[in-house]
Amino acid sequence: QVQTVESGGGLVQAGGSLRLSCAASGSTRSIKTIIWYRQAPGQQRELVALIDSDGSTVYADSVKGRFTISRDNAKNTVYLHMNSLRPEDTAAYYCRSRLATGELSNWGQGTQVTVSS
Known about the structure:
Layout: E1 2-7, E2 10-13, E3 18-26, E4 31-39, E5 46-52, E6 57-59, E7 67-72, E8 77-82, E9 91-99, E10 111-116
Parallel strand pairs: 2-10
Antiparallel strand pairs: 1-3, 3-8, 4-5, 4-9, 5-6, 7-8, 9-10
């Protein structure tokens, strides 16, 4: 099993930047993909970005060109670099791991990002 813990959220003004971290523990060698999601109040959870073990990435259209996902394999950590933040980016951000078998890690507590206008 793999566990993931999110951190790095906070309050930032529009146009600002934040870096979120997703630390994985457990059977980390089995991880194929790390996925970042977000959920704003009253809205469904949505995929923000993901990164595969081969380094390939996918982004939601709403964050392309502003967010960058990266991974530090030595630290078993994936980062979400968020630039040019907008009030609509306000949400709780979560990460999950996906193994080659398709198994997903449990949802964590998430980390809150609030962007003021």
